[in-house]
Design brief:
Blueprint (H helix, E strand, L loop, with lengths): L5 E6 L5 H15 L4 H4 L15 E7 L2 E15 L2 E7 L1
């Protein structure tokens, strides 16, 4: 039987230290099998690699974090006009 998935949408500033620790563990388990180097950014409870997301969508199941999406606001120039976009 599949467990129910619960989604949480939150701004980065709303996350608690325990959220970052849980996400970091999820990322280490996810990226670790591809090489220790890929899991290293998540040591010490850090829950991002590279730019820190502003908005997060986190899925939880009975085992904890099941999925994650992070969003950053960025501007790109299109025909000389700055356009606000979301980057993953």
């Amino acid at each position: 039987m599949r467990s129910k998935v619960r989604w949480k949408l939150c701004w980065e500033k709303e996350l608690q230290l325990s959220d970052h620790v849980e996400l970091a563990e999820f990322f280490r388990k996810t990226y670790g099998p591809t090489g220790a180097y890929n899991a290293k950014p998540f040591d010490g409870g850090r829950s991002w690699a590279g730019a820190r997301p502003e908005l997060r969508a986190i899925a939880y199941d009975s085992s904890g974090v099941a999925a994650h999406m992070g969003l950053l606001r960025r501007f790109i120039k299109v025909d000389g006009v700055d356009l606000l976009v979301g980057a993953n």
